[in-house]
Amino acid sequence: MLGQTVVVMGASGGIGEAVCLSFAKMGANVVACGRRNPILETLLEKLNSQKIETSSPPTSLDSNVSTLAPKLKSKYAAEIPCAILHKQHHNIHICDVSNYNSITTLLSYLQKHSSSVSHLINAFGITSDSILLKQPLADIQRVLDTNLLGTINSCKAFSRIFLKQRYGNIVNISSVVGQHGNRGQAVYAASKAGVIGFSKALAKEMGPANVRVNVICPGFIQTDMTKNIFNPETQQSSLEYNDILNSIILKRFGEPQDVADGVLFLSKSKYITGSVLNIDGGLFI
Ligand SMILES: NC(=O)c1ccc[n+]([C@@H]2O[C@H](COP(=O)([O-])OP(=O)(O)OC[C@H]3O[C@@H](n4cnc5c(N)ncnc54)[C@H](OP(=O)(O)O)[C@@H]3O)[C@@H](O)[C@H]2O)c1
Fold this sequence. Notes:
Rossmann fold; 49% helix; binds NADP nicotinamide-adenine-dinucleotide phosphate; alpha/beta
């Protein structure tokens, strides 16, 4: 990952942030995208103070680094912020994935200011839970525009540069709900099932150009998206909370880092494409 650039869409979310920090720890340059600037600003501070976690020496030290005192260099793994060792450049961008122009604006900026992008992680998403009969048409549109069309927009925009450079890694975040359905989430399920089918087809299209496309299906992960379930004031008495917990084989809810670990695994695995990785604590085995 050292010196490679990753674009994370949905970086202001729980899973997106964990993905950004995990890539930064591996020495990557992170382009963190979302719609809420204050949250992205805070994330940028975290990224810039991130320490690298690797046991092998960096391979692309620039001239500044090569002049560092040997004692300082020998301690790099534990002590020195990534930015000093590798001149990491992290960026934040406002980007609305449901708007194709918003993504192409980002792309134009990246092409002017960054080295090539190697990884695209689509970690955005919204829910709008309701039984279908009562769900307003506007909400249906919003969920599809964000979760499904947003994934298509993002992959389409980046496919141009990935195909041209004949290298690229895409990880799309779907959901176990896209595989199994869930009452009150028919539209969300449709959007997430769409992401799986779309990603498999794209893997077939882009594989010959060495562009890999994989999907992760998280189960119940503790983020803003699931905060109603995890509200400490209600969870002890919540039937839903206990029902869900009992149905998870590992008997715990997931952390954003559990998903980020899977994203990194897929990003580093050069011979995996078109796969769907469930990270759900065994919810559906
Ligand atoms: N948490 C779970 O239990 C769980 C389970 C299964 C699947 N997932 C999936 O995992 C992914 C991440 O979810 P999360 O749990 O991290 O939720 P989260 O904390 O609510 O984050 C969602 C992110 O999506 C971004 N987003 C929403 N609309 C967007 C748009 N139009 N353009 C760009 N970004 C947009 C939000 O950023 P802004 O508001 O700043 O734009 C936010 O950063 C989603 O695809 C979700 O469906 C989550």
